[in-house]
Amino acid sequence: MEYLCGGGAKSVALLAGAWNPPTVAHVAMGRAALQWAEEVVLVIPRALPHKAWEGVAFEKRAEWIRKVAASEPGFAAAVTEGGLFLEMAREARQAGAERVLLVCGRDAAERIVGWDYGTGAGMAEQLDEYELLVADRGGCYAAPEELGSRVHRLELGAGWEGISSTLVRTRAARGEDWRSLVPEAIREEVAREFTVR
């Protein structure tokens, strides 16, 4: 794990994404995760686990999360080599973290828990190395009983569920208002990248 800013906390909540672009909902998730960890780390993997990078360059996205993290108390930003939660958790531990939580929405939690890991570590084994913090997204996540003690609900409050990077890109492409959906620290850069009129 290569820190772009911050780092060094013993208890970290990793909020990973493709960051195309970061949104105010990401920041809200991070702020809520500070109830669980000393530091929230916005993480971007060098290689995505199940798709290729498209659109905005990796370097630009990494710079965006660095600027967002620098503008938020308790936030850090980092690049990981691995894109799977287990790989990121292990990199965070190698960087000195003793407790690692991975932050995601309900939809991502369902994919991760239901994924066929083949001969690799199954979800129960993975959760020996990290915990999940799951935000409501299209409903509340109900973890399987055997995973329950390592999966926690992330309380966000109302108003964040519909905000996504896809919504920002869609509104920008249509020439609609999108600025309130993106953290102020990167609004002008996002405007230039998406050539918003």
What brief labels describe this structure?
197 residues; alpha/beta; Rossmann fold; 7-stranded mixed beta sheet; 32% helix; globular
Describe, in plain words, how this protein is organized in 3D.
The protein is α/β, with parallel strands linked by helices and 197 residues long. The chain has a single domain (2-157), classed as HUPs (Rossmann fold). 32% of the residues lie in helices and 20% in strands. It is built from 7 helices and 7 strands. A 7-stranded mixed beta sheet has the order 1-4-3-2-5-6-7, with helices on both faces. Strand 2 (11-16), helix 1 and strand 3 form a beta-alpha-beta unit. The protein is globular and about 45 Å long.
Work out the helix count: 7
Rounded to the nearest angstrom, the distance between the terminal CA atoms is 37 Å
Poorly predicted ranges (pLDDT <50, ≥5 residues)?
none
Give helix % range: 25-40%
Radius of gyration: 16 Å
Class by helix and strand content?
alpha/beta
Number of strands: 7
